[in-house]
Design goal:
This is Phage tail protein. The chain is mainly beta. The chain has 2 helices and 11 strands. It is globular, with a radius of gyration of 18 Å.
Length: 190
Amino acid sequence: MAVTVQCPTMGDILAGNQCLENFAGLGSTVYVGLKEDLTEPMKLTDGVYSTPKFKSGKGLYRFDCKDDAQQIQGSSLKNNKGFELTGHFVIDAVSKLTAKYSRSVNNLKLFFIFLDGEEDSQILYDPTRNVRFDDGGIKSDTGKEAKDERTTTFECKLGPVRYDHLYVTPPTTGGWDSLLANKGTVSPGG
């Protein structure tokens, strides 16, 4: 049986329709979820995933990151091969806690939600493919001099996916913090 796939209908991208204030960068909070904690895979519709639903007692984890350091890049993988997403976030700390969480992030099957302005959130998630950290994808740096910063930098990849950016529908009330596993704020730096 042949599989029928329909490409999105083309349309105009007009500055007048966008009220185009196109601010660069992403918010300083990244939410981390374990794929195994979901009650069911999130559904993708036109590049937007449904709100994640978690098993009882499970939920998201909040990483408070360095200001102006989060980024998602989408790049094509040749014609008809989809896209690869690269997510980048920086925690302003090197500590026992960031070392522990770095190990978890490197080894668990996770997804990442990035705040994108006041209304949107982008996600690195796929129900069948895993976000991966290639060699050097997690780096910590204590700095050398007192003026240097201590940072833990994460760069993850996901691909192939169908869109060069993936979005996720936030909860209708309470924002992403309403889905925290611990119902509180945790900063890996402290």
